[in-house]
Design a protein that fits this description.
The protein is α/β, with parallel strands linked by helices and 183 residues long.
Length: 183
């Protein structure tokens, strides 16, 4: 299996060129660092990039989002992204995003800050064209819904299954439907 992955990594070389020429290299570096820390991996940025591209379709989705264009579209043909993880192309996404198998996850926000964590079955979306603004160091857990013209502060945890339709202040945890602050 490792031999096949190493052969596959050869086909990922165009991704390294895209990474080195990316306008979003700083954000990609933050993503790589966060993933490496989470997965307890070490190595150069390029070796880590190749590892995460080879093993994680959700990392590829984030990488292609940060490098939108014809080249990413071509690379996606033989090294596909996670088809059930969507990031709206107009969302401003800070560096350091980490995912927990984001199956059926949609991120459609005005902006999402740095060090964002998202799990599966999460919807961040709009109501009547109005979208959320999410701060730094925010974690959204399984099945949560964050919608509308609301602001989520920094250092916020949104519990599994929560429905957030109102602003959330900094440094708190919200749970429930409708979501309420618990600490």
């Amino acid at each position: 299996m490792n031999l096949l992955i190493n052969i596959f990594k050869i086909f990922l070389i165009p991704h390294i060129i895209l990474y080195n020429r990316s306008r979003n290299k700083k954000a990609i570096d933050m993503d790589i660092d966060r993933w490496a820390n989470s997965k307890k991996r070490s190595g150069s940025k390029v070796s880590l990039l190749l590892h995460f591209l080879a093993y994680s379709t959700d990392f590829r989705t984030i990488f292609y989002f940060r490098n939108r264009g014809i080249i990413s579209s071509i690379l996606n043909l033989y090294c596909p992204r996670e088809k059930y993880f969507r990031i709206d192309m107009t969302t401003k996404l800070g560096g350091g995003i980490l995912t927990g198998h984001p199956y059926s996850t949609i991120l459609n926000a005005d902006s999402i800050g740095e060090n964002f964590y998202v799990n599966h079955l999460v919807t961040v979306g709009e109501i009547n064209g109005k979208r959320p603004t999410i701060g730094n160091n925010v974690s959204i857990y399984t099945g949560a819904i964050v919608i509308g013209d609301i602001k989520i502060g920094n250092n916020v945890n949104i519990g599994a299954g929560s429905v957030v339709v109102k602003d959330v202040p900094d440094n708190c945890t919200v749970v429930g439907n409708p979501a309420r602050v618990i600490n």
